[in-house]
Amino acid sequence: MAAPDGANLSVVVHKAGDLRLENRPVPEPGPNEVLLKMHSVGICGSDVHYWTHGRIGDFVVKNPIVLGHEASGTVVKVGSAVTKLKKGDRVAIEPGVPRETDEFCKIGRYNLSPSIFFCATPPDDGNLCRYYKHDANFCYKLPDNVTYEEGALIEPLSVGIHACRRAGVTLGSKVLICGAGPIGLVTLLIAKAMGAAQVVITDLSAPRLEKAKEIGADFAVQIKSESPEEVAHLVEQALGCMPDITVECTGAQAAIQTGIYATRSGGTLVLVGLGPEMATLPIVNAAVREVDIRGVFRYCNTPQRCLGTPGRRDIHCRLCQRVRTWSPQTQTGA
């Protein structure tokens, strides 16, 4: 299949600091795949990090890769074995696809499979391009009342859902979220949707905290020069008690320390943000107070919940900026 004007314009990172617009061949879908004409693709912090640093931990850009994994589009061609999708269907993409049925897939935790394909994670290409092929089983039809932009938000929302599930957020929970960036904000929305009674959010940035309050945070604590223990005290003052749950979304050592000090005894701290491989933490404080510390890696079994959530229209593009034209000098993204 030839794209109009022969173009499959793609955003490709070659190495740290080397980002290019390239025309690539239009891919041919395999038997279980669909070819998509992309409509909306979010620019994630990981995309920016691969551009500026060329790596995230063990994931290193050794060969050029197409960026983008928060995406929606229209089916333009289906593979021979695909039965649940057809040409013209509007879909959102789950970017992580298991390559084999291993022990993690068998227990429903395919996000932990070491062989998983994940868009825009070296060496796998993403979908910040005009045409992209993907496993049909990991494409989800968008209801008529969900826009393409909202469909692209299903991916970051999935991170928030998985974090809140791992944390055990439920009706009446009192929650601290460290970090009011995009993932912190979607986690706030999901925590509220799952019944959290009160949510306090912390950040260095006053504008980010204002956005958090606008979309539902009960309390916002701006960090200036306070120590992690002092921030924990400010959180307790705001809530009137220590939070049951802390969701750490920055990866910063000081924020993880705050999470340990702030969480009530017997509570749960989940780590969503990825920072340096090694960190100095008050682990004895967590141990003697039985604060459970849980990791979060991407997500699994979440897109269906995003699409089936009542009030999903409120989890919306208030969090977005749009980029209609793009160049390597563009600094903001949808």
Automatic annotation (TrEMBL):
Subcellular location: Cell projection, Cilium, Flagellum
Cofactor section: Zn(2+)
Keyword Repressor attributed: no
InterPro entries according to UniProt: ADH-like_C, ADH-like_N, ADH_Zn_CS, ER, GroES-like_sf, NAD(P)-bd_dom_sf, SDH-like
Superkingdom of the organism of origin: Eukaryota
Chief site of localization: other
Ranges where the Enoyl reductase (ER) domain occurs: 17-307
Keyword Cell inner membrane attributed: no
SMART domains: PKS_ER
Entry GO terms, CC: motile cilium
MF GO annotations: L-iditol 2-dehydrogenase (NAD+) activity; zinc ion binding
CDD domains, A to Z: sorbitol_DH
Keywords, sorted A to Z: Cell projection, Cilium, Flagellum, Metal-binding, NAD, Oxidoreductase, Zinc
BP GO annotations: sorbitol catabolic process
Entry's family note: Belongs to the zinc-containing alcohol dehydrogenase family.
Protein name: Sorbitol dehydrogenase
Gene name of the record: SORD
